[in-house]
Amino acid sequence: ETGVTQTPRHLVMGMTNKKSLKCEQHLGHNAMYWYKQSAKKPLELMFVYSLEERVENNSVPSRFSPECPNSSHLFLHLHTLQPEDSALYLCASSQDRLQAGGEKLFFGSGTQLSVL
Amino acid sequence: GESVGLHLPTLSVQEGDNSIINCAYSNSASDYFIWYKQESGKGPQFIIDIRSNMDKRQGQRVTVLLNKTVKHLSLQIAATQPGDSAVYFCAENYGGSQGNLIFGKGTKLSVKP
Q: What is the pLDDT of residue B5?
């Protein structure tokens, strides 16, 4: 148990569906992240939130929409996804932003997403 | 460009042997490095880290070595156990305005009983 909980663990959706991924961290951290993990590719940073404010959007398509209502919760809203969006979506948190190094990321177990 | 890569995508070792997983990085400005372990069905889990002002750091059964001259990072696991079977990622933090961890593709370690 890492203190970062993601739901659902698995999600299958059609290209016209709208769904949301949820992440909750119980570590009292100030920064939260969404990462995408595809087969045979390195982890890709999607979004960074620090103290509920989005500080980085790594050129992610608008069909992915993050929401951070408070420092403990993070959502990723999905709509009109493409089959190539199928991947493991990982949420992570850290005490503070990864600015100066030394901050460790704590990951959830991820949501395995399949887009049909 | 800036990248973190792993020399071997798969590594198979006998239980009880030592394992060495290698990683190359290209950004000489990176000042912090981390090794993560990802077991099947789980997210990456922190193993050990090292700052650029060090060349060696030891943990419980794990040692990380940093060679800044050749931009090389390695993870050594002593007396490898079946529970060590996983994918291992190295990551570098090059700082920048926001800071970011750049992850390698991962090496799959399989431990034979």
A: 52
